[in-house]
What we know:
Order of helices and strands: EEEEEEEEEE
Number of strands: 10
Radius of gyration: 13 Å
Low-confidence stretches: none
Shape: globular
Helix content: under 10%
Largest sheet: 6 strands, mixed
Strand order of the largest sheet: 2-10-9-4-5-6
Strand content: over 45%
Number of helices: 0
Structural class: mainly beta
Amino acid sequence: xxxxxxxxxxxxxxxxxxxxxxxxxxxxxxxxxxxxxxxxxxxxxxxxxxxxxxxxxxxxxxxxxxxxxxxxxxxxxxxxxxxxxxxxxxxxxxxxxxxxxxxxxxxxxxxxxxxx
Length: 116
């Protein structure tokens, strides 16, 4: 089974940028839609960005225009470029397949903390 490792999180001031990476231990080419999720303290995990195998993207309204998801199938990598960060973006960020049947075990995620 594919394993996912997220990285790139950290502490950043409001208005700053971070680039998250998701490395898969196996091929993600067969996974139709990959997504980035986040879970803030006391809240449920939510899908915030998704990308199809062909590169079509979709975003949750709160991150639209600020975040950009991308994937490199040949390198088994998925990225999330986050700009204009806000304190409300503070959360643990995860990547995984969007389709339930393609979902693999969740990784440990990467913490993003945005200070005001």
